[in-house]
Structure formats: structure tokens, C-alpha cells
Specification:
Layout (H helix, E strand, L loop, with lengths): L1 E4 L25 H15 L2 H8 L7 H7 L7 E2 H4 L3 H6 L6 H10 E5 L3 E4 L3 E2 L15 H15 L4 E3 L3 H4 L10 E9 L5 E3 L2 H17 L6 H11 L2 E4 L8 E6 L1
Parallel strand pairs: 1-3, 1-6, 6-7, 7-10
Antiparallel strand pairs: 2-5, 3-4, 7-8, 9-10
Organism: Agromyces luteolus
Protein name: Peroxide stress protein YaaA
Pfam families: H2O2_YaaD
């Protein structure tokens, strides 16, 4: 099983005094594309005003430019600890025990606009780059889409895609029977379903934490649904779309 998480714009500072090494990251076939995005991002960071515009930052966010300027020498920490925000606060990776963290390193990946897919345990620096950031010499969507899709197509076993639609566009998961895309919805008194925002992220974080703590053996979407019901989560089958993974709805 592979659980795909979206990144977060907010990152935790600090880490170990060990600089980024692309050779230390999972999914080694992405090394070339990673190096290109790093080169473009670091180069743009030399011009603070241009980077602020590319990242759509306000005056109070100038420190984000400094993060990108220091990418080659910044301290690193595991990706699952680096990200903060609603999803990652609910996941609360620092409080997981050793077995759960080892499981996460093998079965969880985060989709970064800067690094592509990274394993949960991969050491990365703090940075600022989003799916819609505009780098002068590179467009992120066509740059990442085929390499990431190829990595996911080569992965055997169940894929549980918890990414946002924007990051799915940067590398769709394969449309096969053991690949599912999960949406978070609420159901009102009239039975109508609607997508959620804040609780969408929180629910994905709680589900991921539950998977890491239980470490079930799941091979099919049916396995995932059965486990989820026992774990206190409601998963319903969602829409079927041509050339897309089967959708599931997590009812929050």
C-alpha cells in the first residue's frame, strides 16, 4: 500500500545539520527533474522581488525567499515532520512510535512541488513552492506530470490518493482496480453531500494516523473499506470516471 499525501505551504523550521542530498530521497528516477526545479528555484531566489511575485507572497512573507535561497545548506528533517498545518497537525507525526514511523517511511509519500514525490522519512529542508508557482524557465505541471505518473504506475499494490486535485494534476495515479482517490464530504439532513475544506484536511490526517498505528495489510479498495469501518471511519464508493482511479468518499 502507498498513501499519497498533499504537502502544506507551512513548514517547521530547523532540523539536523545535514544538507539536502538528492541521492538520499526515495523514488530515485525523479532525481533529474528534482535537480532542475531546485536549480530554477534557487536561481530565482537571488532576486527577492521576482521570487515574491512567483510565489504570490505578501510583504510579511519575505522570510520564505530566504528559505529558498538557503536550500543547498539548510538543515533537513523527515518530510512527515517538516510539514505543518491542519492535515499534519491531525496526523501528529512527532508523537508516533518507532514502528509507526518505520511503516510511514515505507508506505507514505508526500507530493512536493519542489521535490516531486518524497517518502515520509526522506530528509528535506524547509522551502516555499506551490503547485501554481511560476518559475521563469520551467512550468511545474508538464515538468512533473509524466515522471510522477510513471513512478506511480510502476508501484504495485493499493494506492490511496489523498492529494488535492491540484497536485493530482502534477502526476495522476494509474486508473486501475487497486488505485483509489479519496474525497472528504459531509452529509446534511437532506442527504446532500458537499465537499469540505478545513475538515477535509483534518479527516485525511486522522485517517493516515490510524493507518500508521494499525498497520493493516490492505491489498484492494474493498480491504480499505472493511478496515475503515472497523476503525471508525465511513468510506462510501464515489463516482466512476473514465481513465481515473475509482473514487471513495470519506464521510466526516
Amino acid at each position: 500500500m502507498l498513501v499519497l499525501l498533499p504537502p502544506s505551504e507551512t513548514k517547521r523550521d530547523g532540523g539536523d545539520p545535514v544538507a539536502l542530498s538528492l541521492d538520499a530521497l526515495s523514488f530515485p528516477s525523479l532525481r533529474g527533474p528534482r535537480a532542475e526545479v531546485l536549480r530554477e528555484t534557487s536561481g530565482l531566489a537571488a532576486d527577492g522581488d521576482a521570487m515574491m511575485k512567483a510565489l504570490k507572497l505578501g510583504p510579511r512573507q519575505a522570510a520564505e525567499v530566504d528559505r529558498n535561497r538557503r536550500l543547498p545548506t539548510s538543515p533537513t528533517m523527515p518530510a512527515i515532520d517538516r510539514y505543518t498545518g491542519v492535515l499534519y497537525d491531525a496526523l501528529d507525526a512527532p508523537s508516533l512510535d518507532g514502528a509507526a514511523r518505520e511503516y510511514a517511511a515505507e508506505h507514505v509519500a508526500v507530493h512536493s512541488a519542489l521535490f516531486g514525490l518524497v517518502g515520509a522519512g526522506d530528509p528535506i529542508p524547509a522551502y516555499r513552492l506551490s503547485h501554481d508557482s511560476r518559475l521563469p524557465g520551467l512550468r511545474l505541471k508538464p515538468h512533473w506530470r509524466d515522471p510522477i505518473s510513471a513512478v506511480l504506475a510502476e508501484r504495485s499494490g493499493l494506492i490511496v490518493d489523498l492529494r488535492s486535485e491540484a497536485y493530482v494534476e502534477l502526476g495522476p495515479a494509474p486508473a486501475r482496480s487497486d488505485s483509489v482517490f479519496l474525497r472528504v464530504v459531509s452529509i446534511d439532513d437532506g442527504g446532500r453531500r458537499r465537499a469540505l475544506n478545513h475538515f477535509n484536511k483534518r479527516s485525511k490526517g486522522l485517517l493516515t494516523r490510524a493507518l500508521l498505528e494499525a498497520r493493516p495489510t490492505l491489498e484492494t479498495p474493498d480491504d480499505l473499506m472493511a478496515w475503515s469501518a472497523d476503525a471508525g471511519f465511513r468510506l462510501d464508493l464515489g463516482a466512476e470516471r473514465p481513465s481515473r482511479p475509482r473514487e471513495m468518499e470519506l464521510v466526516a
